[in-house]
Design a protein that fits this description.
The structure holds two protein chains of two kinds. Chain A is an all-alpha fold. Chain A has one domain. Chain A is built from seven helices and one strand. By secondary structure, chain B is α+β, with helices and mostly antiparallel strands. Chain B has one domain: Winged helix-like DNA-binding domain superfamily/Winged helix DNA-binding domain (Arc Repressor Mutant, subunit A), CATH 1.10.10.10. Chain B has a three-stranded antiparallel beta sheet. In chain B, a hairpin with a 2-residue loop joins β2 and β3. The longest helix of chain B is centred in the last third of the chain and has 23 residues. Chain B is elongated, with a radius of gyration of 16 Å. Chain B starts with 9 loop residues before the first helix and ends with a helix. The chains are: A mainly alpha, B alpha+beta. Chains A and B meet through α1 and β1 of A and α2, β1, α3 and α5 of B. β1 of chain A pairs antiparallel with β1 of chain B, so a sheet runs across the interface.
Amino acid sequence: MEQNNNPVAVLDRYTKRSVRSFWMDGLWDLVISGMLVIIAVWGAIYVQFAAFPSWTWPFFQNAGRSMVWIGLLILVAGLALYIWGMWIVVKLVKKRMVAPYTGFAEHRFIMRVDHKVYGWYLILYICGLGILYGLFAWISGGVHMMSVPFIISPAAILVGVGWYYQIRRYLWLAAVGLVLAFLLEIFATTQANYLAGPQNYLDILPQWGSPVLPCLVWAALFLVSGVLGLAGTWRRAHEPRSAA
Amino acid sequence: MNPDQPLDLSQLVEVDRIIHEPARAAIMAVLYGVESADFKFLLETTQLTKGNLSVHARKLQAAEYLTIEKSFLNNYPHTRYSMTKLGRAAFKAYVEKLKWLSKAMEGK
């Protein structure tokens, strides 16, 4: 049992432990990794739709701009279906593979997350957007409108959750992912300029950027994080921590 | 509850005595964050002994703050605990009361 002068803080820590168990075993990291791959595949197609006028599209030559909205709807519906399916799969896997080591707790589908986590996310996201747009404009000559949200958003979520629920691997993941995604985006857009057109390695316009690269970087890192989480659970490494 | 109000000692008496015990408060705090949890999870998270956990959980069940479901999983007994609506409200009120008392004491 924990000893502390502030009983409310102690109770809060017990509640945090039960919430953090949702992420500690790494299974949801694997799910997020898959989700990011789906977004990356969709993004690769979406960028082509957005970059070229509809009369150049191979199968929809008379289609209007609404095709892009249909694409967005397909993505949202697909992701909702994927998350719902994974919710069931992860629950089953947790019961069979994780519960013997840590016990089993069932969380709500829409979890109660502390307001401080949302607060941190918003602050980091807005500040990160500003900094990255500025950096990209300065270095590559374009703001990379579409890729910056995909670079900063996972990092902001990871820092918020990792800091509040004391999940150290999320803090490392956020730092490594942010740097990697930024560097890869810069590498892929080097030597591109508006007049010459997209002549860089992956044909990425510096004005738009590409959500594909950051999604794939984050997907790879979430995969690593998931494997580490599972390995840690199986080694019974996640004993409850005493008062920090 | 306004912490600026003069501290009335009768407020101390009104603290929920069922929850106001470290082991039971810990069990309630853990279950507050989840829909349900099994015996092993509570044991790992609260670090109580098996006997302590069973006894205190039964007391919370008697107060209708918890429901306890016993079943068999792979031929092993499996116990699942979940907080009732009454328990959730009681725990929330208990934490609010603690916060209020703490603020009121700081003002003295």
